[in-house]
Amino acid sequence: MNDRATSNIPTRIPNFRGLRVLILHPHDHNCNAIVEQLGRLGASANICWPAERVLADAADIVFFDVDRGFEGMFGWPTGKAPVPLIAILGSEAPGRIEWMLAQAPSAYLAKPIGSTGVFSALAIATHNFASHSAREAAHQRLEERLQMRGVLLRATIELMRRHNIDEETALSMLRAESMRRRATLETVGRWVLEGGWLRANTGPPLTACRKTERRAGSG
Amino acid sequence: MFWGVLMVAYIGTASIPLGVVFSLSGSYRTVGQEMANGALLALSEVNESPAFDFQFRPIIYDAGGDAAAYRTRCEEILRDRTVRHIVGCYTSSSRKEVIPVIEKFDALLWYPSHYEGFESSRNVIYTGAAPNQHIVPLLRYTLRHYGTHVYCLGSNYIWAWENNRILREIVREVGGKVLAEKYHPVGSTDIGHFIREIRALRPDFIFNTLIGESAYAFYRAYTAAGADDPAIGPARIPVASCSLSEPELISIGPEAAAGHIASSVYFQTIDRAENHRFVARYRERFGETKVTSADAEASYIAVIMLAQAIRASGSSDIEAVKAALGHCMLEAPQGPVWIDPENNHSYLTPALGCSRADGQFDILWTAGAPVKPDPYLVWLDAETVADQRPRQRANLKVVR
């Protein structure tokens, strides 16, 4: 007997009805097999071949042929597709695989295309693209915070020097200003470094500040 | 003399080999035998009918309930390149084993069972119900009439897993709750602890995806438990299933056969001239005590449709047969049936029944007309069932 932890299992059945699919592949039996499966899933397919500097303006997902793919096929910088890509792979030549990987596809489909594969490729690609995009966004936020930590540190030192106060008082000034302006600590810090002056310490008591400072500092 | 007669019989009539691969033994033999019977009844009707200028020659194998055996049996059959068609499989695990072989030999599998969907092979014709034709109508009814707290119990394989997955989504959409989701090895009949758990959890209904002997043992134990404790049992907390059939009610026995809800595109009690004839011929061929079932009917439909398509195209070539199928319509025992060329599944008429002690079903509801198969549940949210549910909050949309 086995008991599944029902709460851990995602309950959304993938549904691709209305999905607009762009297929960059010559018209052949493989392409037909994909179009047939997409039709069964309620998705619409637009086939484009030959493909050059293609944009994904009217597509939610793009299938592309790896065997005949080339630099300049896509109208976006390599590896920066605005929608999920699904690579259609026949040849396993290392050069082809290398080119394919550079495009950063979200899923793969091996030729010959049969009656299975398209549904799971769509499910995998949309999942991977969404989680990759979320990771990228989080990464970007962290990177910005990281860069701003230097700003914050220098602003604190500047305030300590300017007002002859200790580090905690300087930070609480920054914190109070940031709340007053509804701006991030980093933005206030940059303003201080650019010569801006803060009011004297009008912030909350230092004990309360210490916690928030740490939280802000480690975020 | 004998051989002379036989020779004459085959002169002028082509003999078309047809693989028939079911589990005539093993834990789900009750259904396997019915499926084989349905196929063989259709086969003899074709062979006896002057309307067909060919004869089917059956190649029958018993897979014994072993998924791997289905694969090897089908491979044996297809190595003889003259065989292009096999009717067979019951469980999804057996079908998943067979499909690669069928595709490798580019043959056609006629799969006559309801299943969980999310598949559409160009080498398979599906004559059983797709999920929008079995679980969706079942849940629309049970969520409305009994409530939204569900206990799920099933055999530990893809049929149960995927049906429960569909159920989870629908139940969540209507603001209900899956109280437990339990799986049991195929064939095991040790089910006492499930009864205890049901007694403790008090669901609104039980969704049962156990198959074969496990299911029969559960129905018996659950009905017996209901006799001791009026808080449970079929009269209080019904058991709903997408696979319970007439021959299984006989296997369960009259003491525990009554009061269970089944979703099926066929019941023996369907009042239709085509069904009366089907039941009569079935009894004539297999015995007066025999009952018909959705599984027997789906196998019967598969073989008759194949024969019609061969007649229409003049060939048993699978592409010719598939092309001809698009123009074939059968007045089947359940109602009109035809194949949807978009996905190789069948237009079938969903219905719900409540079982009786005599092993038959009272029909509770019927769709009234064939419903387009939707194996990927693409259109699941196309129609709301919110107005059908007095107690729930969310607005699930379900299509039939």
Task: Describe the fold and architecture.
The complex is a heterodimer of chains A (219) and B (400). Chain A is α/β, with parallel strands linked by helices and 219 residues long. Chain A folds into 2 domains: 6-134, Response regulator (Rossmann fold, 3-Layer(aba) Sandwich); 144-218, no CATH class. Chain A contains 6 helices and 6 strands; from the N terminus they run E-E-H-E-E-E-H-E-H-H-H-H. Chain B folds into 2 domains: 2-129 and 272-347, Rossmann fold; 133-269 and 350-388, Rossmann fold (3-Layer(aba) Sandwich), CATH 3.40.50.2300. In chain B, 40% of the residues lie in helices and 19% in strands. In chain B, helix 4 (92-104) links the parallel strand 3 and strand 4 (108-111). In chain B, helix 8 (212-228) crosses helix 9 (246-252). The interface between A and B is medium-sized, with 22 and 30 residues. Strand 1 (2-3) of chain A pairs antiparallel with strand 7 of chain B.
Secondary structure: helix percent of chain A: 40-55%
**H/E element order of chain B:** HEHEHEHEEHEHEHEHEHEHHHEEEEE
What's the architecture of the largest domain in chain A in CATH terms?
Answer: 3-Layer(aba) Sandwich
Distance, first to last CA of chain B:
58 Å
In the CATH scheme, what's the topology name of the largest domain in chain B? Rossmann fold
Count of beta strands of chain A: 6
Strand order of the largest sheet of chain A: 3-2-4-5-6
CATH class of the largest domain in chain A: Alpha Beta
Give a quick set of tags describing it.
heterodimer, A: alpha/beta, B: 400 residues, Rossmann fold, 5-stranded parallel beta sheet, disordered N terminus
Describe the structure concisely for a colleague:
The complex is a heterodimer of chains A (219) and B (400). Chain A is α/β, with parallel strands linked by helices and 219 residues long. Chain A is built from six helices and six strands.
Give the helix/strand layout.
The complex is a heterodimer of chains A (219) and B (400).
Chain A: E1 2-3, E2 20-24, H1 29-40, E3 44-47, E4 61-65, E5 85-89, H2 94-102, E6 107-110, H3 118-163, H4 167-181, H5 185-193, H6 206-218
Parallel strand pairs in A: 2-3, 2-4, 4-5, 5-6
Helix pairs in contact in A: 3-4, 3-5, 4-5, 4-6
Chain B: H1 2-10, E1 14-22, H2 29-48, E2 54-62, H3 67-79, E3 85-88, H4 92-104, E4 108-111, E5 124-126, H5 135-145, E6 149-155, H6 158-173, E7 177-184, H7 192-201, E8 205-209, H8 212-228, E9 239-241, H9 246-252, E10 261-264, H10 273-286, H11 294-313, H12 318-325, E11 330-331, E12 336-340, E13 345-347, E14 351-355, E15 361-366
Parallel strand pairs in B: 1-2, 1-3, 3-4, 4-5, 6-7, 6-8, 8-9, 9-10
Antiparallel strand pairs in B: 10-14, 11-12, 12-13, 14-15
